[in-house]
Amino acid sequence: MSAREEVGDPRYHVEAADRTMQLLTAMAELAPVTVSGLTAALGWTKPMVYRLVRTLHACGALRQTDEGYSLGPQMIYLGQAALKGIRLTDVARPHLATLHEAVEETVVLTVLDRTDIVYVDFIETEHLILARTRLGARLPASSTSSGHALLSRHGEERIRALFKNHEFTGPTGRAVRSVEDLLDRVERVRRLGYALIDEELAAGHRAAAAPVLDHAGRVVAAISISVPASRVSVARLRKMAENHLVPVTFAVSTALGHLPARPVS
């Protein structure tokens, strides 16, 4: 039996390891938190939580303050070691495949390089298309849904500085024509969770994109769905974005170590 096949096999399940991971995950979400707080959150007995907390504290995995317990320096070391082994395209590829299977359209992984987006991975649709995608291709961030998504965590000053001398051009009259237009598009991404362009990059082309975040909450990539306007309406593309694209980018972000902020109660 391979190591992959052993995952989930009850013969190889270690209850103590499982409980340790549950406690550390709860700690990451709730810290600083007391033993009583952890007991309530996990639904375990207080003696069980206390013993596990004290053991992890002794190992350096937790630290104690007046407010309770938080993740300790050993977890920082382990987290950094884990991040070194993560390659964006390797993490994203299976999720791209899932998205492609769901929407049956071209899906693309891009990164930002100053005012351009760069294609780093893609899966093309099996439908007839006018233009082929290629790795390393560059497009202006201002005219693309991926660009708007990639800029969604940039502040206004940073965007203005980046595009200070940028020539806003586009083959159609719908393209972004100024920094003000671009700021409006970026704000829309923050509000909706995804970007959408309708025949702005090219006539007959529509696309939606959502940002991928890393462990520090930085946008490190965007994933997009590219469709022909003749086959996919704006309403249908929005449904693809909301039902498939956003969940996929959330999954990739989670795989890269991103933990969404907890709502303030």
Structure notes:
With 265 residues, the protein is an alpha+beta fold. The chain has 2 domains: 3-83, Winged helix-like DNA-binding domain superfamily/Winged helix DNA-binding domain (Arc Repressor Mutant, subunit A, Orthogonal Bundle); 88-255, Beta-Lactamase. Helices cover 45% and strands 19% of the residues. It has helices spanning 3-6, 15-30, 35-42, 46-58, 73-84, 88-103, 145-150, 156-162, 179-192, 234-255, and strands at residues 62-65, 68-71, 106-113, 116-123, 138-140, 195-198, 205-213, 219-228. The strands form 2 sheets. The chain has a 6-stranded antiparallel β-sheet. A two-stranded antiparallel ribbon has the order 1-2. Strand 1 (62-65) and strand 2 form a beta hairpin. It is elongated. It starts with a helix and ends in a 10-residue tail after the last helix. The model is unreliable at 1-5 (pLDDT under 50). Residues 74-258 form the IclR-ED domain. One of its GO terms (biological process) is negative regulation of DNA-templated transcription. Residues 14-73 form the HTH iclR-type domain. Keywords: DNA-binding, Transcription, Transcription regulation. This is IclR family transcriptional regulator.
Task: Write a concise synopsis of the structure shown.
The protein has 265 residues and is an alpha+beta fold. The chain has helices at 3-6, 15-30, 35-42, 46-58, 73-84, 88-103, 145-150, 156-162, 179-192, 234-255; strands at residues 62-65, 68-71, 106-113, 116-123, 138-140, 195-198, 205-213, 219-228.
